[in-house]
UniProtKB/TrEMBL annotation:
Uppermost EC category: transferase
The protein's name in its UniProt record: uracil phosphoribosyltransferase
Domain of life of the source: Eukaryota
Molecular function per GO: GTP binding; uracil phosphoribosyltransferase activity
Stated family: Belongs to the UPRTase family.
Pfam families: UPRTase
Entry-linked NCBIfam families: PRK00129.1 (NF001097)
Encoding gene per record: upp
This protein's record includes keyword rRNA-binding: no
Residue ranges that the Swiss-Prot or TrEMBL entry lists as coiled coil: none
Organism of derivation: Vanrija pseudolonga
EC number: 2.4.2.9
InterPro entries per record: PRTase-like (IPR029057), PRTase_dom (IPR000836), UPRTase/APRTase (IPR050054)
Length: 215
């Protein structure tokens, strides 16, 4: 990917953890812990340029000092259900963030995203939103979520996508539809199967997170 808005992690710990996530026999517990660990590292990278402001007149045990605080309101928007596996890691970094759940699923026949739930307040409560979804496969679900967030009142530059893994075509779909949205991602695989799965990928993230393979 050559888009300046796509940031593929080169951190060795992300790549090692992603290797474990790809393993077909990883337990649901270990898969959840791996997603949480990668999410934490990717969120840290995505927050590198978050605006901060001075907080004067603070007191340490030794002397007065000027500290730092967030200069805007942060929102975290997990796409259910798989995005729920990333929210704890994101909240560890932004404990006061508002959580904006979006419910979208991909129709298995058409591969189109279908909305079934939205928890966006009537009045916008965030100035910067991190959109959380472990996988960008076809890109349709992410594009639908971005449409919901921009219709809520955010500009594309106020949204950052954090994802564990994507397909080349899926990420290109997102950057074509929303070229100003930054994407922070662990890796991008070249292939997408005719059923919409990333290859080699890591399978269905929702099923692996919640142990629902046979449901």
């Amino acid at each position: 990917m050559t888009s300046p808005t796509v940031h593929i992690s080169t951190h060795p710990l992300v790549q090692i953890q992603l290797t474990q996530l790809r393993l077909h026999d990883l337990t649901p517990k270990d898969f959840r812990e791996g997603v949480r660990a990668i999410s934490s590292m990717l969120m840290y990278e995505a927050a590198r340029a978050v605006p901060i402001a001075d907080v004067p007149n603070l007191q340490s045990p030794i002397a007065p000092f000027t500290g730092k605080a967030l200069a805007l309101r942060v929102g975290l928007s997990p796409i259910m259900r798989a995005g729920s596996g990333m929210i704890d890691a994101a909240l560890a970094l932004f404990p006061d963030a508002t959580v904006l759940h979006l419910g979208l699923f991909r129709d298995k026949t058409t591969l189109q995203a279908i909305e079934y739930y939205s928890k966006l307040p009537t009045v916008r409560t965030a100035d910067l939103v991190y959109l959380l979804d472990p996988l960008i496969a076809t890109g349709g679900t992410i594009v639908a979520a971005l449409t919901m967030l921009t219709e809520w009142g955010l500009t594309p530059s106020q949204i950052k996508i954090v994802s564990v893994l994507g397909s080349k075509s899926g990420v290109e779909h997102v950057t074509t539809e929303f070229p100003d949205v930054e994407i922070y991602i662990g890796a991008i695989d070249d292939e997408l199967t005719d059923k919409g799965y990333i290859s080699p990928g890591l399978g269905d993230a929702g099923d692996r997170l919640f142990n629902t393979h046979n449901n």
